[in-house]
Amino acid sequence: QRAKLSLLFDRYKHKFTTFPKENGWLGEILYMYQGFWLMSKTIYSVETVMAAQDTFRAHPNDIYLVSLPKSGTTWIKALVFATMNRNRYKNNNPLSTDHPLLVSNPHHCVPFVEDESFRTNPSYRDTKSPRLFATHIAYSSLPQSILDSGCRLVYMCRNPKDVLVSLCKCLDLMTIEEAFGMFSRGVNPYGPYWDHVKAYYKASLEHPTRILFLTYENMKLDTVRNVKRLAEFLGFPFTEEEKTKGAVEEIVSLCSFENLSEVNKHGDFRSGVPNNIFFREGKVGDWRNHLTTEMGEILDQITKEKFNGLDISF
Ligand code: A3P
């Protein structure tokens, strides 16, 4: 994987190493590419995004789960994977012991578009239809074939204060003051936060049958209702019989923070990246334990100005 990334870096570096840059959150450089801050030499990086733009080919039946890092990507991957595959595992029972979500990380079940190691793997071409992918790529930077193919996208948005705290606390490499300063300036992986969210929100209003806009907070509030909505949107509606038998509740419970964090307590997702890095508190409003009231107010003010009347509430 490292060797493949190095090759890619070498192939694309002449294009981006002169772009504006900032020190990143993980001790590496963030490059400004097409208006968004991207890391380098990781699987979600400026060079893998460029490679995806050059070579990724969407199919009309594909489904894409889109989010900013720390907005609930892992959770939405699990929920959609479990919903789409609910008849595939033993006895139609999503809780049967052969279910991938009981033994592996949701990120292994749903690959990222910008994961070069996956795309160069031959199994990528064999994936059955509809294919399910995730991506953090900004709307305006999506590979053109995703926009042209008419396929469906689900966008998971989260309160910026919780995204900031989740980012800062997942590795704990910087102080909350430093993290607040960078995030407020829009410098976070795939940020600025507000530009990323706004573009998908507007696109969801323009193309309501193609793009579903969800929030982490609403998902927490009523997961069952939102999973039913998701299933309908994606073309996998639950039958009345399934609903009566509690199939939706089973999926919600399989994908709960408690269950997934237990399954992923040990082991590595990739070399040097522990499975449990994707699971911390799993709560709404944890920012109150880390940001000052003043920091919260400043972020609220920025959000109000940037969203400028858009009906996005958390
Ligand atoms: P916190 O750091 O606030 O706990 P991502 O998957 O986009 O990296 O987002 C990670 C955030 O989602 C973390 O938030 C993590 O704890 C939370 N999360 C992970 N799995 C979850 C689940 N099954 N239900 C709710 N939240 C979950």
What's the structural blueprint in terms of helices and strands?
Blueprint: H1 2-16, E1 21-23, E2 29-33, E3 36-38, H2 46-55, E4 63-67, H3 73-84, H4 100-103, H5 106-109, H6 116-119, H7 123-126, E5 132-135, H8 144-148, E6 152-157, H9 160-171, H10 176-184, H11 193-206, E7 211-215, H12 216-221, H13 223-234, H14 240-245, H15 247-254, H16 257-263, E8 268-270, E9 273-274, H17 293-307
Parallel strand pairs: 4-5, 4-6, 6-7
Antiparallel strand pairs: 1-2, 2-3, 8-9
The protein binds adenosine-3'-5'-diphosphate (A3P).
Adenosine-3'-5'-diphosphate (A3P) binds near residues 72, 73, 75, 256 and 282.
What is the overall shape? globular
Q: Roughly how many Å is the radius of gyration?
A: 19 Å
The tally of beta strands, per DSSP, is 9
SS-based class: alpha/beta
Helix content: 40-55%
Biggest sheet, strands in spatial order?
5-4-6-7
Biggest sheet, in brief?
Answer: 4 strands, parallel
Could you give the distance between the termini?
38 Å
Q: What is the average of the pLDDT values?
A: 92
Order of helices and strands: HEEEHEHHHHHEHEHHHEHHHHHEEH
Oligomerization state: single chain
**Treating each run of at least 4 consecutive H or I residues as one helix, how many helices?**
17
Bound molecule kinds, no repeats? adenosine-3'-5'-diphosphate
Task: Give unreliable regions as ranges.
Answer: none
Strand content: 5-15%
